[in-house]
Amino acid sequence: MSKVIYDISMSLDGFITAAGQTAAEPLGVGGDQLHEWAFGGSDTDRSFLNDGAAGCGAVISGRKNYDDAVPFWGPDGPMQRTPVFVLTHEAPASSPEGGVYTFVTDGPEEALAQARRAAGDKDVYVMGGAQTGAAFLEAGLLDEIGIHLVPVLLGSGTPLFDSLGHHVRLESLDAVQTPSATHLRYRVAG
């Protein structure tokens, strides 16, 4: 059976964006450092990105992440025509023509049900920011968490697990260190 994986880059001090987010800099001032491993890192870094993309059948994103990223993603989404299910309270008035985006207003369970149908036997990646990740974790919908821990201290920004309301046990599955990031993978144990 396919897995549901929350996958995200994070600074050593726990932030997934830097402070000072704008439309031009959705990751905040200097926040683009969080994704350098994916675009300019080592062969090992690129294999994490490529392996994830190859195993991904659908993506779930939060609305803020969608709003911030769609100017860069365009109609094809973050993984070249892989369906993206955007968890939102209200669908936007417009979306890129011919885009891969479906807007889901009925909560994480419905977003996951639609994403699983689209993914078939491939994995579903939750790539939708801190609130979306916490919502899926709180609802018990995640099988794994993948964190690409980047050796930078941002000092402020969007904290990853700030809104989590309880303890969650994790089982370490893998840890691979490169100069650009330490790639951590955990099974959600409860």
Automatic annotation (TrEMBL):
Domain of life: Bacteria
A Pfam family this chain is assigned to: RibD_C
SUPFAM superfamilies: Dihydrofolate reductase-like
Bacterial bifunctional deaminase-reductase C-terminal domain location: 3-180
Name of the protein described by the UniProt record: Dihydrofolate reductase family protein
Native source species: Georgenia halophila
